[in-house]
Amino acid sequence: MKLIECPRDAMQGLTEFIPTAAKISYLNALLRVGFDTLDFGSFVSPKAIPQLRDTAEVLAGLDLSQTKTKLLAIVANLRGAETAAAHPEIQYIGFPLSVSETFQLRNTNKTIPEALAELAAMQELCQKTGKTLVTYLSMGFGNPYGDPWSPDTVAEFTQRLADLDVRVVALSDTIGASTAATIEPLFRQLIPAFPGIEFGAHLHTTPGTWREKVQAAYAAGCRRFDGALGGIGGCPMAADQLTGNMPTENLVAYFSEIGEKTGLDSKAFTEAWQAAGSVFHF
User: Fold this and answer.
1) How far apart are CA 78 and CA 115, in angstroms?
2) Which residues of the chain have pLDDT under 70?
3) I need a surface site. Which of 16, 126, 248, 264 has the fewest CB within 10 A?
4) Taking a C-beta distance cutoff of 8 angstroms, is the pair 7, 22 a contact?
């Protein structure tokens, strides 16, 4: 079981700038919890995501001496990937590849063919520099634009990634549109079809639907879940009304309930939860 904490996703849509020192303090609290991976920041244009313009400074302030948690940075293009790859502390580089052409243009200003070409260059860079590319299949459970979507469409995208030897693919519910009826069959189709790929669930949700979504992904064999404490955040490029991230505290409670070990330090988790409240004001 791998839990990926995503403070980057929680912060990116907030209009009020979180001071760099506050980000560093919060992320250091998260690093003590024992998450598999911390999606900590993003090397993208500060005009696009002004909240994350201090990612390099934040990275310099992180205490990595007492943690096994790996760092993941999101990028939108090859230049961002090159910046991320230059930091030895970062293990994972994440890139959003959209199943929806409309959203790919909105999110990275690229067509799908252009994004795939960029992704191939990123994968080559990661292989040369010892990084692992994590590809997020955005709008992986449908889209609001009328663009083509089906499980077979997602499988076709996944095959292109497999052909590039991409090893980690997170199906991303960018607008919270998924249901158990779409989540479980999709994971059941993909997981056995691509044994060389580790599939993750990056699910956005409303407060009333989180459990059925997690249950569906878990039942289908997914063992990699993204979350954000407090369910804060969402994708500012996807909709004006942000659908929240999957609350990490709900994931932890659910897996405890079913007897699935997460390996988290409960005391550090409580401290991180308190820190999240002060950062995000909940």
Assistant:
1) 10
2) 234-243
3) 16
4) no
The answer to whether 133 and 166 are in contact (CB under 8 A) is yes
Phi, psi torsion values for 222, nearest 5 degrees: -70, 135
pTM (2 d.p.): 0.95
Neighbours of 259 (CB within 10 A): 6
Is 93:134 a contact under the CB 8 Å cutoff?
A: yes
Best CA proximity match to 7, nearest among 21, 24, 16: 24
Q: Tell me, what's the pLDDT at 259? A: 97
Set out the domains of the chain in order of their start, with CATH numbers: 2-280 (3.20.20.70)
**Residue among 116, 107, 109, 223 nearest 175 (CA):** 107
Question: pLDDT tens across 153-205, in order?
Answer: 999 999 999 999 999 999 999 788 899 999 999 999 999 999 999 999 999 88
Q: Which DSSP letter does residue 231 get?
A: G
pLDDT at position 234, please?
Answer: 61
The label of the residue with tokens 């994004």 reads 115
For residue 228, give Cα distances in angstroms to 30, 218, 249. 11, 18, 8
Q: Which residues contact 22 (CB under 8 A, 6 or more apart)?
A: 279
Cα–Cα distance for residue pair 141/127, rounded to 1 Å: 29
- In the numeric block, the tokens 């820190």 are attached to 275
